[in-house]
Design brief:
mainly beta, 14-stranded parallel beta sheet, disordered C terminus
Length: about 600
């Protein structure tokens, strides 16, 4: 798609103006058993509106007056599409922020609510608030530029029982004054919050740098329940605090948990910052503390497991007078039982892993290139690569892991074929690599996030709507998967992977790599082509379980900025997925 300079200039001028939209339908009081349609859009919500049994059709805009809320007591089903999302935003940005979409429970399963393919922007009391309602589905949504006067800029969850899921959604560029710039969750005993395939990035806690203690730049979780995060990117979140007298502290730049249990699988936690500063003054005694630049597990966390996850380029900073403490640039554990398997903790500032109390074990992991100590505190380490070495344990090495790149993106932490970490993990078959790529060498475990049986779970989140960085678009249809890639010029090449299950073992096909306009059909694969000629044909062979793994050498610099689209037909979309380590630009 090409956009003229005149259009870009016009768009920039329009976006700089206060947004004042005209209404198609005014909404006040209560809404029961209604359907909001594109014909009646935009719907202007003028105050606190009680909602029961409301359907919102694709493409509808909901414009919220300052302070206005949608208070859902039974169900609201707002299901948009990729091409026609449902948008909730301020009616007049200059007049002030609106309140929140509140789902109040408990409700029966039959009264479940849906937010799918929705954009929620400009709220002032958390974009979405869920209180004791496990039957809310959030999927393919974008929550951006929302704020909270307390906790959870994008999403605030209080859950006393059941399991709540947030899937394939973006929580980007939100703010909160106390904790959880993107997500704040209070999970009761026996309850579980599952966050899958989400991007939680560029959120800010304490944007005014007030004095005090602040936690969870991206995510904060409390309560005796469990938070499970899989295939998520938690990146570029930050907290900063400043004091004249007293103590300031920031903890958990990416993720902070102060109780309960954590299960972090296939995630990238990178580029998050905790910053605490004191000033020269006569205000009295001062101290500054910054801990857990990437992750902090607080004093009441019982158990935490980190598997096939990357903790990179996070930072703890302290400046000024008085006692200054900056530790655990990658990860800080205050207590409990921390287990790491096939994790990579690298290029963090202020230390790699700090174990203040409790226990820590690491296996098949890489802890290297961290500024300060690599591991501080009691830890049991086996079959891992640790800079400077470790005492005790078996199978450990201290060689340079020879990462694929020098940056902080996930693809930079793949292993070179020359790395001593390849085939150096635990030799027990239970730890064997399951996916190659990203695994290298033989089936024996590769140390680090991209090795072992969980390497297939090292999936960057798919792109949702439109944002600044993406890793491919997966769109399921009637037995169809579309994979839409755009490569950025100068990005390092990396082996892409397309994987399917549910196909007949006798099936075979081929992939013709090119850019799109026209189509070409090869067996079970149809490829959309552009004006450029295709650059190669690669075979697809299904294994005995009806799966195929197609390594694609995506070193496509001549195609940088163009769409690379693959359509796979005749297969069950539930069994289709794609992985790659490319840094990708928005596809539209």
């Amino acid at each position: 798609m090409y956009i003229s300079r005149m259009f870009v200039c016009l768009l920039a001028f329009t976006c700089s103006m206060p947004l004042v939209a005209q209404c198609g339908t005014n909404v006040a009081g209560a809404v029961t058993g209604a359907t909001w349609t594109r014909a009646g859009s935009p719907y202007c919500v003028t105050g606190a509106v009680a909602v029961a049994n409301l359907t919102i059709n694709p493409g509808v805009e909901v414009l919220m007056a300052p302070g206005a809320t949608l208070q859902v007591s039974t169900w609201m089903r707002a299901v948009g599409t990729r091409a026609a999302p449902i948008v909730f935003r301020a009616q007049n940005q200059a007049a002030g922020r609106w309140g929140s979409i509140v789902f109040q429970g408990p409700v029966p399963a039959s009264a479940g609510s849906n937010l799918e393919w929705c954009r929620i922007e400009g709220a002032g009391d958390s974009g979405v608030t869920i209180i004791n309602n496990e039957f809310v589905t959030i999927r393919h949504c974008s929550l951006t530029q929302n704020s909270s006067p307390a906790r959870g800029g994008a999403l605030r969850v209080v859950l006393s029982s059941g399991t709540l899921s947030v899937e394939s959604s973006d929580l980007l560029a939100n703010t909160s004054l106390l904790s959880g710039g993107g997500l704040d969750a209070d999970i009761g005993a026996g309850a579980t919050l599952r966050v899958t395939g989400c991007r939680i990035g560029q959120n800010v806690v304490n944007p005014n740098r007030a004095p005090g203690r602040f936690t969870g730049g991206g995510v904060r979780a409390t309560g005796a329940g469990t938070i499970s995060m899989q295939g998520c990117a938690v990146y570029a979140n930050r907290m900063a605090t400043l004091t004249c007298g007293g103590q300031v502290a920031t903890a958990g730049g990416g993720i902070y948990g102060d109780s309960g249990g954590f299960d972090i699988v296939g995630c990238s936690i990178r580029g998050n910052v905790c910053d605490s500063e004191t000033v020269v003054s006569t205000c009295g005694s001062q101290s500054a503390r910054a801990t857990g630049g990437g992750i902090e597990l607080g004093s009441n966390v019982q158990a935490a497991a980190i598997r096939n996850s990357l903790v990179s380029c996070n930072e703890v900073r302290v400046r000024g007078l008085g006692p200054l403490v900056a530790i655990g640039g990658g990860l800080y554990s205050a207590s409990g039982n921390l287990t790491m398997v096939n994790a990579t903790v690298a290029r963090n500032t202020g230390g790699g892993v700090e174990v203040a109390a409790g226990s820590m074990s690491a296996r098949n992991s890489i802890i290297y290139f961290n500024g300060g100590s690599q591991i501080a505190g009691a830890a049991s380490i086996d079959y891992s690569c640790v800079e400077g070495g470790v005492s005790g344990g078996v199978g450990n090495i201290a060689f340079n892991p020879v990462f694929a790149g020098a940056g902080c993106a996930p693809e930079d932490f793949g292993l070179s074929v020359f790395s001593f970490c390849v085939d150096a993990g635990d030799p027990a078959p239970a730890f064997d690599d399951a996916c190659q790529p990203p695994g290298r060498g033989s089936a024996r475990n590769d140390m680090g996030a991209q090795g072992g049986p969980g390497a297939c779970d090292f999936l960057p989140p798919v792109r949702i709507l439109c944002a600044g960085e993406s890793y491919g678009e997966l769109v399921g249809g009637a037995n169809t998967l579309f994979l839409d890639w755009v490569q950025v010029a100068g990005a390092p090449s990396y082996l892409g992977r397309v994987e399917a299950s549910g196909a007949a073992p006798s099936s075979a096909g081929a992939l013709l790599v090119g850019t799109r306009t026209g189509t070409a059909r090869f067996g079970d694969v149809t490829v959309l082509l552009d004006t450029m000629q295709p650059i190669g044909e690669l075979p697809i062979v299904f294994d005995s379980r009806g799966r195929f793994a197609l390594p694609v050498p995506l070193d496509l610099q001549p195609l940088a900025g163009r769409h690379i689209a693959v359509q796979i037909v005749g297969l069950d979309p539930a069994g289709l997925r794609a992985t790659n380590g490319l840094r990708l630009s928005p596809c539209y």
